[in-house]
């Protein structure tokens, strides 16, 4: 998604949006769903460090303002979400989200069909990118 802001501004917006996952996923949902991690940890006001987390995601790698790799798991899936920011000259920057997931077992396959097959995952990622763009 093209963002009419600098990479640094988009990075700050991305971190703020990801930090918001902690408020969006209450413990009453995180624990029964089996999200790992279940709670937020770390300083999300600047560049998160490997090991910092929000419900469902742990920072695996952060290279401000270029890329952020989050990993997590729950009862039905193990996944990674990688954000990459590229310069576009005077036009600002581009934010890309790459997702990788495994869906083990019968329950995992059913979950994949529900979330990926329905297009729900695509809509959720697009909304996340749009939220970052608006905030930047």
Question: Overview of this structure, please?
Answer:
The protein has 136 residues and is of the alpha+beta class. The protein has a single domain (2-135), classed as Alpha-D-Glucose-1,6-Bisphosphate, Chain A, domain 4 (2-Layer Sandwich). It is 38% helix and 29% strand. It is built from five helices and six strands, in the order βαααβββββαα. It has helices at 7-19, 21-24, 27-33, 105-115, 120-135, and strands spanning 2-3, 53-54, 57-63, 67-74, 77-87, 93-102. It has a six-stranded antiparallel beta sheet with strand order 1-6-5-4-3-2. β5 and β6 form a beta hairpin. The radius of gyration is 15 Å and the shape is globular. The relative contact order is 0.20.
Layout: helices, strands, pairs:
Blueprint lengths: L1 E2 L3 H13 L1 H4 L2 H7 L19 E2 L2 E7 L3 E8 L2 E11 L5 E10 L2 H11 L4 H16 L1
Antiparallel strand pairs: 1-6, 2-3, 3-4, 4-5, 5-6
Helix pairs in contact: 1-5
Give a nutshell description of this structure:
With 136 residues, the protein is α+β, with helices and mostly antiparallel strands.
- Spatial order of strands in the largest sheet: 1-6-5-4-3-2
Topology pattern, helix = H, strand = E: EHHHEEEEEHH
| Secondary-structure content class | alpha+beta
In total, the number of strands is 6
Q: Approximately how much beta-strand content do the residues carry?
A: 25-35%
CATH class: Alpha Beta
In terms of per-residue confidence, which ranges show pLDDT below 50 for 5 or more consecutive residues? none
Overall number of structural domains:
1
> In the CATH hierarchy, what is the architecture at level 2?
2-Layer Sandwich
The oligomeric state of the chains shown is single chain
Determine the number of helices (DSSP H or I, runs of at least 4 residues): 5
Radius of gyration: 15 Å
What is the 3D form? globular
The fold-level CATH name is Alpha-D-Glucose-1,6-Bisphosphate, Chain A, domain 4
Largest sheet: 6 strands, antiparallel
- Give the overall pLDDT as a whole number: 92
Question: What is the terminal separation in angstroms?
Answer: 12 Å
Percentage of helical residues?
25-40%
């Amino acid at each position: 998604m093209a963002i009419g802001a600098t990479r640094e501004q988009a990075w700050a917006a991305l971190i703020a949006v990801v930090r918001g996952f902690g408020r969006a996923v209450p413990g009453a949902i995180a624990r029964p769903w089996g999200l790992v991690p279940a709670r937020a940890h770390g300083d999300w006001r600047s560049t998160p460090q490997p090991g910092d987390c929000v419900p469902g995601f742990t920072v695996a790698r952060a290279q401000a303002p270029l890329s952020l790799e989050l990993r997590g798991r729950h009862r039905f899936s193990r996944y990674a979400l990688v954000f990459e920011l590229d310069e576009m000259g005077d036009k600002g920057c581009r934010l890309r989200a790459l997702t990788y997931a495994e869906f083990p077992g019968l329950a995992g396959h059913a979950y994949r069909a529900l979330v990926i097959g329905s297009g729900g995952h695509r809509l959720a990622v697009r909304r996340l990118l749009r939220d970052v763009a608006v905030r930047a």
